[in-house]
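Example record

One chain of 237 residues, shown exactly as stored in the release files.
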Amino acid sequence: MAYKFTIIVPVYNEEDNLDRVETKLSEYLKIASKKAKILFVNDGSQDQSQEIIERICANNPDFSFISFEENRGLSAAISAGFNHVTTEYVGYIDSDLQTDPNEFNLLLEHSETYDLVTGVRSNRKDSFVKNMSSSIANGIRRTFTHDGMDDTGCPLKVIKTSYAKNIPMFNGLHRFLPAMILLQNGNIKQIPVSHFPRIAGEAKYGLWNRLLGPLLDCFAYLWMKKKYINYKIEKQG
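Predicted structure tokens for this chain:
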């Protein structure tokens, strides 16, 4: 059976989480509602992440990887994954596993009707400062984009690959994935999902890139929205 769904796992200095990632994603592959495979994108990790990723991929035929020469950021890692994927659907989950990969099946239930399905983290297990800054950032983003999404930072998403490949990525644009689907006249849906505390490793975002950074990114989004080219080919010969 051919693969239908690729799950992108961006990695940056997550050596303490990767064995658990292997276990959890291997378990999910057995119950996935669409035949799935895993793509690690190593974003220039400086710890032992690459060695662990290579071992995981050598032991699991459904796992593969690409690795950056240097750290380029989460948006670059997601963009590289989108460019690399050949399956009909593409997903995304963080390697800290604060969301449950089994809940991809909840999103996949709606994947044929909607072009992007994203999780909304319920009862978030983060600090007060992190939750508050994310809430403010989401409010600012909604004001600029009118995408109606409550939690674009949720690292659990399913997108039709044909739409994902048409997203022109820049740093910070991973927060605007629903808005970029709307620019393509696509439709989007959000589904409540579970959230868990980080067990190992360190968070990669502080107050700047969780609150002030997204505000600046909104202006970049508005510029790109004005310049965005959207077309559909009717005929070719």
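Notes: The beta strands are 5-11, 36-42, 63-67, 89-93, 116-121, 156-160, 188-193.
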